[in-house]
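Data availability (excerpt). The following record was deposited with the supplementary files.
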Amino acid sequence: MPALTSRPAAVLLAAAVSALAFAAPAGAAAPEVDTLTCTSTSTTTYDPPITTTPATSTRTINQTYGPCVGTGTAASITGGTHTSSHTTQRSCLQLLSTATVSWTIDWSNGQSSTVTAQRVSNLVGAVFTNDFTGTVTSGYLAGRSFVETMTAPSLQITDCTLLGGSVSSLGAVHTFTLL
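Predicted structure:
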């Protein structure tokens, strides 16, 4: 009896495979995945400069993304910008904290992405880093995850946190990768 039921099953399987072969022609391209990697630079200024004592200061960030290399719909992106200015109480000790942050990137293709990330800061020797892990929360590429790493010299931060100096500006390099 098992031999009788396995033959019809084999015929049905062969028919299903044949139908799939006609539904997906040989050489049909798989959908292209959106990928994006950008190098960038930023300048962050503090006016007045921040110290170890929290005080009102305006932080201004000017970041230029690019060159960027993307695939899929992100292939149209060659660069982007992020500019923001915010006045609040701050100190140089806050630069070494973990926080949730959001910002908007205006891409070269005319689209914008608002991103939200968890920032983890580290100060090791002469290098200050911020590692951002987050999601594009709205706009272009919404729902996609990303990582961004910022690297800057740490001299002003070390001087401020250990010796009572101040931080007036930070220049950094970044790598942004859409996951």
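Summary of structural features: Residues 1-25 have pLDDT under 50 and may be disordered.
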